[in-house]
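Hey team,

Filing this mostly as a record. A colleague (T.K.) asked me to run one chain through the structure pipeline before their review meeting, and I want the input and output archived in the tracker in case anyone asks later how it was produced. No errors, nothing strange. Just documentation.

Input sequence:
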Amino acid sequence: MPLPADILAYNADQSADDRPICDRLAATIDRHLSANADGAVERKIWHRHPVWFIDGNPIVGYSRLKDCIRLLFWSGQTFDEPGLKPEGSFKAAEARFAREDEVSVKDLKRWIEKAVRIQWDYKNIVKRKGKLERLK
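Output structure:
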């Protein structure tokens, strides 16, 4: 299934250096998340950035920062992966890429597999007053 028009437009709006990074991330995430997920996968622009969800729970997305593209896994701190660094005060972890050749498809596939198995319930974080619970 082709990527949604809004994600394609987001990638097309990036600089000539950043567009290939975004295209590689989008294609790899889309292919491998859909292949591994048990639940319904949704992909859309959320808070102005491409994000993939499983059953309404945010899993992975990317965004443009000043000097790089940031890949964010909402539950990534619990993946035990040296290539991901903690981000924020919850369970998110990130990787940053300044060039397309920095994106390891092998690592990304492994992180996506872990993202499907290891999820924290961000979908209901407001209802639980900021408390995260582990899913699956």
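Quick notes for T.K.: The radius of gyration is 14 Å. DSSP finds three helices and eight strands in the chain.
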